[in-house]
Amino acid sequence: xxxxxxxxxxxxxxxRGLVASVHAHYGxxxxxxxxxxxxxxxxxxxxxxxAIDPGAGAFDYAGEGDSRFICTTHKPACIADYWRRxxxxxxxxxxxxxxxxxxxPEGEFDLGVTVRSGKGFxxxxxxxxxxxxxxxxxxxxxxxxxxxxxxxxxxQNVTDQxxxxxxxxxxxxxxxxxxxxxxWRGVTVKVFAADALNDYHLRDGAIWHxxxxxxxxxxxxxxxxxxxxxxDVYRLFRRMRRRRRxxxxxxxxxxxxxxx
Length: 260
Known about the structure:
The protein is of the alpha/beta class. The protein has helices at residues 12-26, 39-42, 75-85, 143-152, 160-168, 194-197, 217-228, 233-244, 247-252; strands at residues 2-7, 31-34, 48-51, 61-64, 67-70, 90-93, 97-99, 111-115, 135-138, 181-184, 187-193, 207-209.
């Protein structure tokens, strides 16, 4: 199974951590879709780089009301290009992920997605409350879904995640989806818990995801150092996040919107 990601300059500091963790657990580097890296960003990284045009608006923000999320609508194009070059199953992860253990999902399915749990799950919030598209498992090209996803990502005011939730929602009963498989127009979709394979609480998951404020350079480096020291990484992050909130946000119980 290949590990695949995409990155631009803004995520170059995270990319170094991801590449090192993939080497540690897979014995080889990831395939990196270059959507805006510089030569210094790529220097010294043992990975396969593939340049691709992310398309207009890929790094814009979309959403409703005050909640805005990065679009990353280039993902379907990267995944389609991968299947033109390879025939091996793949894990497509965001560049701000870090492998803690090797992941080789078992079972027969075409696409695996990770669904949020606990307070983070909200079936009525397709933008940021159902799946987190930072980890996707493709055992097969899943062409009908990939084509529909790409078409949806060309619409206005969408994110790759929102489009995927809307499409898969035709077949998946999200509140009762954990560890189940569903048939979406002939594509078999397996649902995994985000806590296990897309752990943005930075606890026991095989893949940690430094999403939102977690991937800001200063915070990211502090969290990695804490992990190496065996400290409670998420507890440290919560303290750091609290210090970043203004007095009125603390008074109202509001924090930063967590990007998907």
